[in-house]
Amino acid sequence: MRWIRPLSAELDGPADLLGGKALGLALLQRLGLRVPLGFVITAEACRAFLRDGQQPARLEHELSSATAELERATGRTLGGTHAPLAVSVRSGAGVSMPGMMNTVLDLGLTPAATEGLATETGDRGFALDSRLRFLTSFAGAVTDADVSRVTAGHRAEGDAETAARAVEEFVLARCGRPVPADAQGQLRWAVESVFASWDTPRARTYRSLNGIPDDLGTAVVVQRMVFGNRDGRSGSGVAFSRDPGTGANSPFGEVLFGRQGEDVVSGRTATRPLGDLAEREPVVWGELVSALRRIEDHYRDACYVEFTFEAGELWLLQVRPGRFAGGAAVRLATELADERVIDRHEALLRITPGHLRQVRTPRIAPSAAVDLLGRGLGACPGVAVGRVATTAEDAVRMASDGPVVLVRPETSPHDMHGLAAAAGIVTAHGGPASHAAVVARSLGKPAVVGVGGLRVNCEADAVQVGDRTVGAGTLLTVDGTSGEVALGSAPVVENPAGEHLARLLGWADEVAGGVGDTADDEAERLRAAQAVLRRS
Amino acid sequence: MNRPHTQDTGLLLLHALRCAGACSTERLRHITGAEASDIESELIDLGVAGLATRLSGELPYWSLTDAGRAAHPSRIRDELESAGARPVVTAAHERFLVLNPELLDLCRAWQLRSVDGVPSANDHRDAAYDAQVLDRFADLDLRAGPVIGELAAALPRFGRYAARLTEALERARAGELGQVTDSTVSYHTVWAELHEDLLATLGLQR
Predict the structure, then answer these.
(1) What is the extent of the structural domain holding A248?
(2) For chain A, how long is the longest CA-to-CA vector?
(3) pLDDT of residue B4
(4) Per the database record, which ranges form the PEP-utilising enzyme mobile domain (chain A) (predicted)?
(5) In chain A, which residues have their Cβ closer than 8 Å to the Cβ of B61?
(6) Which 205-244 residues of chain A touch chain B by CB within 8 A?
(7) Which of A440, B61, B80, B134 has the highest CB neighbour count under 10 A?
(8) Dihedrals φ, ψ of A446, to 5°?
(9) What's residue A266's pLDDT?
């Protein structure tokens, strides 16, 4: 086949043809790790689509053949009424463009296939939930709109079938054609929408700012669905082989039981610390920990994976190096050298002056005494301690008596005077480019956004995270680097990687042979060593 | 540009306080484009009607009262329906939502950039980088223009956003770096007010 390759351990080729995601999945298979069967449509097909405005000749035929092969290998049928096959359709470019391109899940769950899945599993609720997930992700991809609005009311009432109809009507109204009743038609349209998502104005802007050529296109990965929403012994999560906040050598991440991966990323639900897996699914945990170790050995670096487990069986869906920053990068490089995974020279070359600039950002000290309330994304580094205010007005009023942490579902211009008065900011929703994040950075205030499961109850003047309730006026500590929100005044450390940094710079001075060790500036000591190493 | 009729200034101010939160009279002038004297007298009327209140402090601010917040939705809905503008505003809101993530990406790029592979605060010492980001702002502004134009054709008060956004961008390009994300008249602030305005006008929750 010209445009499509099976996902296998043998898959090999340039990243700008096959994409980082597919190559990562091939690597996982070479390491003997479990990956859902599937195939990849090359970025060349996307480039042809972008050039000609239509899918290349023969792609449709190849898509049918690849699907037939996947059906044969899995013993299931796409859109079938017995043993239906559902697939995920995900973008996978040669360069990372987080959140820019489309993903469709549970594709193939036509009404008939959904009935088939309900019969096969004996769980109609699961089958309907999966079909609704297909429709919302499909509608989001083909309309570029925020579909959560369309389903919000029905989802709240737990009425998946009405919500599904509302999404179907939305697609028809927006696109002038219905969600295809046949699974192959769904697949063709989904693939086209992923191709097209390469070329949205937003994606073009992102590429322009990050120096990524506009003509690369994206590969598309199609894989058998693994259902994290299957039952109580299923779930999804993300995991780092080491703590990306501190560099400490223990697995770190989040897990959601009974859910699919998009729920982990969306922040709609409070996730659980990765360690919960050890208690609830010890076999999955054991496999995950050994997989992380194997991947780390291969990369000779910390790693990140996305995973789903279905009925107690672990599947890996994505892998990449950890990309640690600041003090965590310093500790990681130093400890990898201690472990003789890399030598000291390589450790020195892995740290940039940019990492050193961030080493001295204050952090919540890792300590058993820290009572962690929740965790989100760090949006503006630094630590703030203050009393909870749930409205901007309260923040302004309370700030005259001492520092305040403003906790909001999300922020809007209404909150500006409260944001200005607060010492720290916490929101339940939004990502690193949300209104709260942008304003916090403009004010230089520590901020954590997108704290999963956080609810702000203005009437009761309290905030809830999971089953814990914290009243206004309670002292909170906010760490805008790690995204941690702790109860009380948590211990703070000014230079969390201090001991590792001192050792690493000692190695730098040895290498530089007295050239750099007179310099006061840490970056200069590192640069002097790197200059020597790069010459040799 | 259409100037609001004098009798609309009260609603204009009520709506500005709803969309932008507590405001000084100077800021209300910037938001509404109305004359300072009109604003003063209309605010006093709103105060007498119990809809707005003056907060004393270092800078005097005006803010909606609970009664003002309660009165706002029906009055702004009446304005929308009597102008027959709901379909236009609904369509423009949807087009705005496509542009909104890109604007937020741009604000993030203005504040943070990757240095040696590490995301770091943009120290604005690299003029070429800043110019590149501002070029993308200008490109976005060109695409936002028609959306605001359609809104203004249906409800003239929306025209202020085009003027304010363009002004912020021009001042930023002339070297006032705070006009992008930092000041109360920055591009990001005005954009966020437009977002809030669309939601408030249509009676939608975020």
Answers:
(1) 235-321
(2) 75
(3) 43
(4) 403-483
(5) 417
(6) 205-206, 208-210
(7) A440
(8) -55, 135
(9) 67
Question: Which tokens belong to A363?
Answer: 């952090």
Say yes or no: A334 and A350 in one domain: yes
The count of domains in chain A is 4
Q: Say yes or no for a CB contact (<8 Å) between B116 and A353.
A: yes
Q: Does the residue A229 lie in any domain?
A: no
Query: Between chains, do A433 and B104 touch, taking CB under 8 Å as contact?
Result: yes
- Regarding whether A40 and A128 lie in a shared domain, the answer is yes
Query: Do A420 and A506 share a domain, yes or no?
Result: no
In a domain, A164, yes or no: yes
CATH number at residue A417: 3.50.30.10
Name the pLDDT band for A515 (thresholds 50, 70, 90). Answer: low
Residue A230 lies in a domain: no
Tell me, yes or no, whether A117 lies in a domain. Answer: yes
Report whether A222 contacts A38 (CB < 8 A): yes
CB contact under 8 A, B105 and A202: yes
Q: Are residues A71 and A91 in the same domain?
A: yes
List the one residue out of A74, A158, A88 whose CA is nearest residue A124. A158
- Is the dihedral angle over the CA atoms B165, B169, B171, B176 positive or is it negative? positive
* A68 and A20 inside one domain: yes
| Tens digit of each residue's pLDDT (9 = 90 or more) over A17-73 | 999 999 999 999 999 999 999 999 999 999 999 999 999 999 999 999 999 999 999
The pTM of the full predicted model, rounded to 2 decimals, is: 0.89
Predicted pLDDT of residue A360: 86
CA nearest neighbour of A272 among A286, A284, A258? A258
In degrees, rounded to 5, the angle at the alpha carbon of residue A321 between the alpha carbons of residues A318 and A325 is 130
Could you tell me if A81 lies within 8 Å of chain B, comparing CB atoms?
no
Average the pLDDT over A294-298 and give the result: 97
From A224, A243, A270, the end of a domain falls on A224
Amino acid at A65: S
Segment A494-503, tens digit of pLDDT: 888 889 999 9
Q: How far apart are CA A409 and CA A434, in angstroms?
A: 12
Same domain for A381 and A287, yes or no, is: no
pLDDT tens, B49-88? 999 999 876 677 899 999 999 999 999 999 999 999 999 9
If asked whether residues A385 and A472 sit together in one domain, one would say: yes
Q: Does A414 touch chain B (CB under 8 A)?
A: yes
Same domain, yes or no: A334 and A433: no
Q: How many angstroms separate the CA of residue B41 from the nearest CA in chain A? A: 24
Residue A144 φ then ψ, to 5°: 60, 20
DSSP A1: -
Please tell me the distance in Å from B6's CA to the nearest CA on chain A.
26
Q: What number is the ipTM of this complex?
A: 0.84
